[in-house]
Write a structure and sequence with these properties.
The protein is an alpha/beta fold. The chain has a domain at 2-17 and 30-197 and 279-297: LmbE-like (Rossmann fold, 3-Layer(aba) Sandwich). It has helices at residues 2-6, 8-11, 43-57, 79-97, 115-128, 143-158, 202-211, 213-216, 225-230, 236-257, 259-266, 268-273, 291-297, and strands at residues 33-38, 61-66, 100-103, 132-135, 176-180, 194-197, 277-286. Strands 3-2-1-4-5-7-6 form a seven-stranded mixed beta sheet, sandwiched between helices. The chain is globular. The relative contact order is 0.15.
Amino acid sequence: MPVARICLTVLFASLAITVPSAIRADDGDGKLRIIAFGAHPDDCEFKMGGTAVMWAQQGHHVKMVSVTNGDIGHWRMAGGPLARRRTAEVHEAARRIGTTAEVLDIHDGELLPTLENRKTITRLIRNWKADIVIAHRPNDYHPDHRYTGVLVQDSAYMVAVPFFCPDTPPLERNPVFMYYSDGFQKPNPFTPDVVVSIDDVFEKKMDAVDALVSQVYEGGALGSEATLRQRKADNPIARRELATESWSRRQGRIADKYRGALIDWYGEQAGKQVKHAEAFEVCEYGRQPNREELKKLFPFFD
């Protein structure tokens, strides 16, 4: 494994690329521009894949950035081969749901909130001309998740400062920064500002989840031979069915937990019927949207 990790600098010259797209960040087509940061190649897809599908279906532009390359996120392989594999997985997921993907050349488990990384995140947000920026909260079980949240928070002011990263034009308007949902309670629990029904696109989200074979069907860093058998990793049809059942429960727990918010956004009758949901909290850094602006940023409730 040490040799494979040493080789990553060379190997990743071809990996930190985006999925080909006819849309450029400077098209100025009036559509929303959303950029999401996940610590690893799977976090964005897991946390907001359904909402991303809905944005994409309306012609809005969604980019999912994996801040580390995931090169230790498997129990049986690591280094350059795993990084290449996981990069290919998120690119395939993006192809399936109509979004854009990028993987940064930072080792899994080694992300730190450095000035260099802050500049990288700031440039990505600026280059995408983001209206919405989404990331982990900075209180999380995984250090990469925490520091992804910290780096995005640290960029929330700097994206509009002209002489920070002067090589990249600053944004004229600060984006709305938001968090994915999580279950952590200390020092403060997640409090949703927007809860989105993904019932109509649940199977489409599963298309993206299904592409992340190393994580979903092989168990990622904490898997084993037993995981392969339990998840029927060698049978594409059976494993998809098992994953769909598992993810239906997972998204269902979010819907049940935030049922009151769903009723608030969709009305009592529709809100009570939602089976699968994703939830987001507005960060207190960045632009502070009112309810009407949130409806424009999440144009799904009418």
